[in-house]
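ok posting inputs for the nicotinamide-adenine-dinucleotide job
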Amino acid sequence: MKIAVFNTKSYDREYLDKYNEQAGHRLVYFEAPLNRHTVNLTQGYEGVCVFVNDIIDRETIKGLAENGVRIIALRCAGFNNVDLAATSEYNIRVVRVPAYSPQAVAEHAVALILTLNRKTHKAYSRVRENNFSLERLVGFDLYGKTVGVIGTGQIGIAFCKIMLGFGCTVFASDLYESPGLKQLGVVYRPFEEVLKLSDIISLHCPLTPDTYHLIDQNAFSRMKDGVMVINTSRGALINTKDAISALKKKKLGYLGIDVYEEEEKLFFNDLSESIIQDDEISRLMTFPNVLITAHQAFFTREALAGIASTTIQNLTDFEKGVTLINEINKNKI
Ligand code: NAD
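and the output
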C-alpha cells in the first residue's frame, strides 16, 4: 500500500524501513505534521501514518476521505488527537499501537522523580565547572514516601511496581482496579483522597473530556504542601496556568513534565535559534524546581522497534482484509 507517513524524524524512518523490508509497503515520508493545512499532500495515498501531535480533526478527515485515504495508522497509544466520530462517518479505519513499552514511559517518570529530587542535572553542570559544593542539592529519601498514581493501565502498573520496589506506599485511583496491583500492596482510593495523601503524584490516565484539566487549582488545593507532580501522559491533564500559580505559592514543590498542553508548536523540533512565543512554557522554565522533557518518555530502542513493527503489521492486516486487532472507533471506546 502507498502510505504517507507524517511528522517523521530520522529515527522513525530507520525503524519503519527496517520493519517494512518484508511487508513492502510504499512509505513516503513527510517531516510536516498532518493537519487541515497539509491534508492536500495525501492525494493518491491509501493510508496515512501519524503521531501524537498531528491534528486529525473533522476537516482533516474530510480532506483525507476526499483524497481516497482509507486508513489512519497511529504510531502511538493515545488517540485524543483523532475525531473518531468523523472517521466513522467518513468510513476511515483507525489503528494504533496499544502497547510498545510501558516500561519505557514508567521508567522515564521515575527518572523525572529522581532528577527533581536529587538534582543530578544541577550536580552535572556544577561539577563540570569545578564547583564541588553541595549547597542547595539536598534531596529526600524516596523510601517510606507516599506515591499517588492516577491511572493504573499498562504504564501505571509498571510505574507502581517500580515505586513499590523503592519502599514507597502506593495509593492509586482508576475507574477499574487491578487485582494484581492490590495483591502487591497498592491501595485504591478515590481521586481526591489520593491527592490528599501523596508526597508524589504521577499521572498515567489518558486525556479524555473527563480528564481534561484534571489537575487544576481545585486539585492543587487538596494536595500536600510541597507535593511533587509528574506528568508523562498528556499535557492537557494539567491546567498550566494553575500549575504556575501553585508553583509561585510554593504549594507545588516540584513539577516534572514530559508533555505540555501546547506542545505541538514546540516539541520534537530544534527551536534553539527561535524566539519562543509561548509565555507559559517560558515561565515554567524559569522555576528551579521544574523539569521539562520534550515527550521523550517513550523514546527507547525497544519502544521504537515495537511501534514500527506493530504499525507495519496493522497496515498489512488492513491490506489483507483480516481483523484489525488494534482498531479503535467510537463504538469500541
Ligand atoms: P492504558 O489504557 O493501559 O491505561 C490507562 C488507564 O487510565 C486505564 O486503566 C483507565 O481505566 C484509566 N483511566 C481512565 N480515565 C481515568 C480517570 N478519570 N481517572 C483515573 N484513571 C483513569 O494506557 P497506558 O498505555 O497505560 O498509557 C497511559 C497514557 O500514557 C496514554 O493515554 C498516553 O496519553 C500516555 N503515553 C505517553 C507516552 C510518552 O511518551 N510520554 C507514551 C505512551 C503513552
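notes: The chain is about 35% helix and 15% strand. The mean pLDDT is 97.
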